[in-house]
Amino acid sequence: MTSLFIGLVNFLNDVLHVEPISIVADAGFWLLILLIGYPLAAVAVLFRMIYRVLGWCLGGGGKVDPRANNTQELAVFVTGCDSGFGRQVVEPLTARGFTVFCGCLHKSSFQHFQANALAIPVQLDVTSDKSVMEAYKVVASWMSAGSKKQRHFHALVNNAGIIRAGTVDWAKMPDFQATMSVNFYGVLRCVKEFMPIFKKQASEGTYSGARIVTMSSISGLFLGGDCITPYVCSKHAVDSMTENLRSEMMPYGVQVVCINPGFHSTPMADPKSTEEAVCNIWNALSPSQREDYGKGYLQAFRDGFNPIKYFSWDSRHVVNAIENSIIDRYPAVRELVGLDAKYGFAFLRLLPTGLGVPTIRVKPACMQR
């Protein structure tokens, strides 16, 4: 019976890959999705909205508050605290009573946290196995240190990130490697290093409700962004890893959250830095490449960064999203932040891949001759 079923499925697979049967089958499948699936999805969205509104009215399902429990201390480790979202989220978290380990690439950044008794700066290079291991030891030492209260590791926030611009042709291999090293392998390295703490707490029953929060980007969901291809590749990778990690950590009761912001005001999205990056990329091209593409293509490439210049939202919304993912007892598994991420790019994601909107809409000079 099993072999017969497998044979029929294989036969069906073969038939559905023969034209014009495959063309008709594809159209019929998506017509069913549009006629049946979308109305059901609309009902699901409506019920989800009602559920979330009721939850908000009733207190949001509860908050994690270290100050409310005199028998325990909760710690959070945030990477990338030299600037941007990482530095900004430390203050509200410590104000709520969390002990925050602030991972900083540069020791000079420690000064920003000197006046905060609950902020513990730790030098951290997420591209280094040794550095991440040493950071883990700092947290493990804190947890085992003598204290009248039980100490638990509540959250790991993977926030450290860099951006490298360029198309596939313009960006150099070191640009792709550096971006993946921080944005993907850096996240993976931290997750793997701190995972034993989460598993130990869960298996021993000493603490439940821990979570791993990863800062991705709308670039991790949206198929586009010709101007920042290395960055887009790294964010797609970290999004995929986060999805798999969520399933893996479910038996341990560890929640996995992915935050996908749009364009926000941070040093990484500074217009001056962006313009400087564009000039550096262009100047690094060979004379023949510059001739092939031309100044018109360069200007179109430069214009691809206009959304960052004109529509960079207030960074506090992302900071609030990080904070909520840490304090909500039942945080959203994915948080889109920003008008562009929530509604603009979300619509573009529904389009077939072939109908994607290119960032650069000008042909290279060599194709206009």
Automatic annotation (TrEMBL):
PROSITE patterns: ADH_SHORT. SUPFAM superfamilies: NAD(P)-binding Rossmann-fold domains. Pfam families: adh_short (PF00106). The chain crosses the membrane at residues 27-47. The keyword NADP does not apply. The keyword Metal-binding does not apply. It comes from the Eukaryota. One of its GO terms (molecular function) is oxidoreductase activity. Keywords: Membrane, Transmembrane, Transmembrane helix. GO terms for biological process: steroid metabolic process. Belongs to the short-chain dehydrogenases/reductases (SDR) family. This is Short-chain dehydrogenase/reductase family 9C member 7.
